[in-house]
Design brief:
The protein is of the alpha+beta class. It has helices at 4-14, 147-156, 194-201, 217-225, 249-255, 290-310; strands at 21-22, 37-38, 48-49, 53-56, 62-70, 84-88, 100-103, 108-110, 113-116, 125-126, 137-139, 162-163, 168-174, 178-179, 190-191, 206-213, 234-238, 259-262, 267-268, 274-278, 281-286, 318-321, 332-342, 345-350, 367-371, 383-388. The chain folds into 4 domains: 4-17 and 166-310, MoaB/Mog-like domain (Molybdenum Cofactor Biosythetic Enzyme, Chain A); 25-39 and 137-163, no CATH class; 48-126, Molybdopterin biosynthesis moeA protein, domain 3, CATH 2.170.190.11; 318-388, Beta-clip, CATH 2.40.340.10. The chain contains 6 helices and 26 strands.
Length: 389
């Protein structure tokens, strides 16, 4: 059995990043940048008023003549002279000679004159370049584009960002005992939850198809080959990862031309995880229990997806105290947990875990706790590595 760290390194070395593409901002939500973005000009590009008021030269105050009115979007304006001010509105450019703005609520207007309070230079002004200077790095390659990042790109006029494509996934679920979630199972049958689980976990990917196959090699191969080979990047097979008489995952991959790189990890849950590649495509056979799916996705399969979209597989872990005692195992264990807040800060609350097929206590899981192999008992309050989800 390979260690998880060795397996992740192997995945990173065998998976190839997808070719980048330029797409419009309207389609870029959730995509990953494949270029770094710098400011093309100072931001703001000109000094402007932070609110409605009166612009003037700081140091002058008292009764001033209102020489002009400046609205947002004004292209030209007169210079402010001694004893003068300008009526100005939020976002409007400051006129030459002015370096401060008095809020209108603090000014007494009398016809063409205004009583201006004493104000320091820069007050009420959003100065040119105060947010960023031309050339400043604003977005780094590998960042995920959320609403704020898209808005920033729009501000920069960067309307065709270079991004990674969404990985295309073909998912085949094995198990003759499985029925659809909307069907009442007969004796010996269970509802298929892994189709729903994988679809939700892969929400940032493109799901090409989700198919169901029985526990025999011909139907599994038929399902895999029913979708054109060039239509997907990642093949996921749920179930059939072990070595039982009805486990055909590794054999199906081999007969489909894949090179199998590992068939078991020193991992709990998820020991019989299989990883294989064929050219620039990769495949995983995932042990069938739902918790094994959940863990294998976050600690193994996610590494392949990260390489596809980012070119690397970061694995950032937090360190948090646990609220309950945890016992180690001969295998490296990833224990489901929920992050909770106590008076002294965040901590990890291990959830009840009876078996890898038990989902009843896992609602609200948002972390996996890493317990090294052959670890001694971890006492309540002791700190542990945690993968935040």
């Amino acid at each position: 059995m390979q260690s998880l760290d060795d397996a992740r390194a192997l995945i990173a070395s065998r998976v190839h990043s997808l070719a980048a593409e330029r797409i419009p901002l309207s389609a870029a939500l959730g995509r990953t940048l494949r270029e770094s973005i710098a400011a093309s000009e100072d931001m703001p590009a000109f000094s402007r008023s932070a609110f409605d008021g009166y612009a003037f030269a700081a140091g002058e105050n008292g009764r001033m003549r209102v020489a002009q009115e400046i609205a947002a979007g004004a292209a030209s304006m007169q210079s402010i002279g001694a004893g003068e001010c300008a009526r100005i509105f939020t976002g409007a450019p400051l006129p030459p000679g002015a370096d401060a703005v008095a809020m209108q609520e603090h000014v007494v207007r009398d016809g063409d004159f205004a009583e201006i309070p004493l104000t320091v230079s820069g007050h009420g002004v959003r100065a040119r370049g105060e947010d960023a200077r031309a050339g400043d790095l604003l977005l780094e390659r590998g960042q995920r584009l959320g609403p704020i990042e898209l808005s920033l790109l729009a501000t920069l006029g960067h309307t065709q960002p270079l991004v990674a494509p969404r990985p295309r996934i073909l998912h085949v679920v094995t198990g003759s005992e499985l029925v659809s979630p909307d069907v009442t199972p007969a004796h010996g049958q269970i509802r298929d939850s892994n189709t729903t689980l994988i679809a939700a976990l892969a929400a940032d990917c493109e799901m090409i198809a989700q198919l169901r196959a029985g526990d025999d090699l011909p139907t599994l191969l038929d399902a895999i080959h029913s979708v054109p080979h060039d239509a997907w990047d990642v093949l996921l097979i749920s179930g059939g990862a072990s070595v039982g008489d009805y486990d055909f995952g590794a054999r199906a991959l081999a007969e489909s031309g894949f090179s199998v790189h590992f068939t078991a990890l020193n991992l709990r849950p998820g020991k019989p995880l299989i990883f294989a590649t064929l050219g620039r495509q990769c495949a995983f056979v995932i042990p069938g229990n739902p918790l094994s799916h959940f863990v294998c996705w976050h600690v193994g399969i996610r590494a392949a997806l990260d390489v596809l979209v980012k070119g690397e597989a970061p694995f950032e872990l937090a360190t948090l105290p646990v609220t309950k005692e945890l016992r180690g195992n001969a295998r490296e264990t990833w224990w489901p947990a929920r992050i909770v807040w106590r008076e002294d800060g965040p901590c990890a609350e291990p959830l009840r875990w009876q078996s890898s097929g038990d989902l009843t206590a896992l609602a609200g899981v948002n972390a996996l706790l890493r317990i090294p192999s052959n670890s001694p008992t971890i006492a309540a309050g002791e700190k542990i590595s945690a993968l935040l989800i």
